[in-house]
Amino acid sequence: MVATVAFQQTGGSNTELTPTDGVITISTSGSIVAAALYPGFPFPNTSAATTVNVLINNKAVVSAVSWNIGEAANPAIVTIASGASLTLDNSDKIAPNSHVVVGNGGTLILGGYATTTSDLIQFDGSGGTIEIAAGTTPSVIQYITNISENDTIIIDGLSADGYTYNKGVYTLTSDGQPISGTSAFQLPSANEGTTFTVSTITVDNGNGTTTTKTVLNAQHVVCFLPGSMIRTAEGDVAVENLQIGDSVVTFDWKTGEETVRPVIWVGKAHATVQPHLADDEAAYPVRVLKNAISEGVPYKDMLITAEHCLFFDGKFVPVRMLVNGSSIFYDKSFTSYDYYHLETAEHAVIVADGMLTESYLDTGNRRSFRQEGKVASIGGRAKAWATDAGAELCVDRAFVEPLFRKLEARKSSVAEGLRDADVVALTDDADLHLVTETGAVVRPVRHEGLRYSFMLPANVASVRIVSRASRPSDVIGPFVDDRRQMGVAVGDITFVTAARQENIVGHLAETKPEGWHADASQSDAAWTNGNATLPLSGLTDGNMGLLSLDIVAAGPYVAAVQKEDAQVLSA
């Protein structure tokens, strides 16, 4: 075990860094030249491995050469955060069970480093960046785990403005056409279907050359479409015509007064609809018809993205939670579009198309936009809804559902553009079955109460528990902020052979197999996503047996979607 890092500070000599309270902290720029130095000599010992946790922070710019991170029996975690960056190349190694974690404001540059092992490199879910240097294939992305909203992946040397998605494969495109060469990648199964905004930036290298980079930001787009009329001190102005320094009208909901604030930033980006995804995740814009909220609100059709918030009674509510398919609906006539956002110094309630809504809150995705008009340098930390929002972000069903019902009830007051809403047909049939590693489908041989029993042949290492799956937001209504695919909730699992009975509890562990939802509120059952792995840990070696599952909850599920009778709407 080596609890050190051999480090050469920029402009300095090789030294050994040792841990404080179990962590080595690197807060200055330089190079990691190995895990340790040879005893008594300032020479790197490249055969050693750092087996203690390391934190790189404070905007330190660090590169590593011949650095071994952890050992199989003594893993280590390297965390990059707070504006710092770490560059790994093909001489660096990450041991099994060790991790490089990219935290809030941290950047990991893969400068030739590649892996075919999942989970060695991961985001921590707070808005980090991983940059794949030119010459490193984007396929490395499929081994990067825990991609969450506002995490960013940058691919050097590519110029893309969109992507296609087919059976788990993302293919980057330019003007709708696939980019030749290595432009395709996959994500780990837990992150399949993640939506990205795609933009291209050009970076001046300072030596007369530039580098083109494609920026993928995992996020829900929160923006206005062109033609959205923003209230300013001089009257309503189309969002695409706003400039830095213009004064917009903001609403102080605590005092009920209007104030004027300057625009400090205007951003523009481009979205491409992904029709294979659910409507609320596919990047379709939401059309709020004229008068849909109240008489004269909005005063014209409003086009915003699904995660954009409208303001009601002191709270911001994402418009996706108010979609009724009739007066507020996803406009599927769009296949791609430009979108804009504007920022004031503090997140604020502004007025668009006569409706109270929100200005831009930078939660770490600013680089996804191209700045419009005058150039201004915007720095500082990424902000958060909990601490920096102009009002509470509310997704609580108790508040949103009555609002949804109220707006749904007034759709008959909308004179133009009313759509036929979809009617969702439901079923309680889970279609529960197992699938073996060879693809064989195993149906239940017995069903009594909660218990489903399946006969398994010998030597089956694992099975997948497969069923229908639906999202509560689809089954109950968009006012339910739960968009997980829910299959079945599994309680006790037993495997019985002629000689013994074994209880299987892997699905109840804190770290669950693939396809299981983590839910700390339940300790005696776990929900699948409709296709969950169940390792059998050698229980069937040489033994056929009966696998029994207690299904403690299931369904209902979406069976079909039909159009509502237009005559009913017009009645």
UniProtKB/TrEMBL annotation:
SUPFAM superfamilies with a match to the protein in the record: Hedgehog/intein (Hint) domain
Domain Hedgehog/Intein (Hint): 222-363
Top-rank lineage group of the source organism: Bacteria
Pfam families in UniProt: Hint_2
InterPro entries for this protein: Hedgehog/Intein_dom (IPR028992), Hint_dom_sf (IPR036844)
Protein name: Hedgehog/Intein (Hint) domain-containing protein
Source lineage: Bacteria, Pseudomonadati, Pseudomonadota, Alphaproteobacteria, Acetobacterales
